[in-house]
Write a structure and sequence with these properties.
By secondary structure, this protein is mainly alpha-helical. The chain is 47% helix and 8% strand. It has one domain. Helix 2 packs across helix 3 and helix 3 runs antiparallel to helix 4.
């Protein structure tokens, strides 16, 4: 069950964004499968879920990150200005900052196993 609502996620954005339902579902799934047993408090999990939903909504609606808008002759620039993964959006960065367990920071990174012969 989701810890955040679509209206709470919408509150992160100054403009109306779409696909909030999908963003919330993705964030909830991520929290339930990756962070629920990381020893974090319920309020912290809710805040991280909010930021993750904002991250997913930004990826869907802003295609990563809007860096420039011009009204006359209409020009928009999108860029991956922050980094990869959760670092692609301001909300992903906030989720990373709120996770003291380090689970988000290491998620998706491969681990190597070395054997000495």
């Amino acid at each position: 069950m989701s810890r955040v609502t679509e209206s709470e996620v919408q509150g992160l954005f100054p403009e109306t964004v779409s696909n909030l339902s999908e963003a919330v579902k993705s964030a909830t799934l991520f929290i339930d499968e990756e962070l629920v047993n990381a020893g974090l408090s319920i309020p912290r999990l809710k805040l991280i879920e909010l930021y993750l939903a904002g991250h997913f909504a930004a990826l869907i609606n802003e295609r990563g990150g809007l860096t420039r808008v011009e009204i006359g002759e209409t020009l928009e620039d999108y860029s991956n200005v922050y980094g990869e993964g959760l670092k692609m959006t301001r909300w992903g960065l906030q989720a990373l900052a709120m996770d003291p367990s380090g689970t988000l920071a290491t998620h998706g990174k491969r681990t190597a196993v070395f054997r000495v012969i």
